[in-house]
Design brief:
176 residues; alpha+beta; 3 helices; 9 strands; 35% strand; elongated
Length: 176
């Protein structure tokens, strides 16, 4: 009969090798699971961000909750467009909205967003000619019938465009 013996260094090598193989299997299975999660999120919600939002408890997703842009100071108003996505399997009703100032008026409300559908909300911001050189900032609170997301905060930051400001008349006075 043959005798079989292992030295301590050989045992440590085999244990480390087994641990390394098991760790590689865990990493490979995690990568497969993550890849599968990405595919499922893309198929069900349209994007990984939307899928993450859904599993985090969000049911109404805004493409961008902050509207940033420029405005022409010679205009009387600026129209803002927000896109809301209903991630839930039931229809969502947007009942109304309030704004941080009376210069902002929301359009197309109330309205319904079908299950997994998309809706656009428009708001008009009136420009005060006395403040046409100032940045315009404000918030719009949108109210829904959803128990998890009864209120959605939208905001805007508008800066006067330099090109439009340059076309305004400038008066010089000569000093004597």
């Amino acid at each position: 009969m043959k005798s079989f013996s292992l030295s301590l260094s050989q045992i440590i090598f085999l244990v480390n090798r087994s641990f390394l193989i098991a760790a590689c299997q865990v990493v490979a299975m995690s990568a497969v699971f993550f890849g599968l999660a990405v595919v499922v999120a893309e198929a069900r919600f349209g994007s990984l961000d939307a899928g993450w939002a859904y599993f985090s408890g969000t049911r109404v997703l805004t493409e961008s909750s902050i509207f940033r842009g420029n405005f022409d100071p010679s205009q009387q108003e600026v129209t803002l467009n927000y896109t809301l996505r209903n991630l839930d399997d039931v229809e969502l009703t947007i009942a109304g909205a309030t704004a941080s100032c009376s210069c902002t008026v929301t359009e197309t409300l109330p309205q319904s967003i079908p299950a997994r559908g998309v809706a656009n909300i428009q708001a008009r911001v009136k420009i005060d000619p006395k403040r046409s050189g100032d940045d315009l900032r404000g918030e719009i609170r949108v109210y829904t019938n959803h128990h998890r997301n009864p209120e959605i905060l939208l905001s805007y930051v508008l800066k006067p465009s330099v090109a439009a400001s340059a076309t305004l008349p400038v008066h010089f006075s000569a000093g004597g």
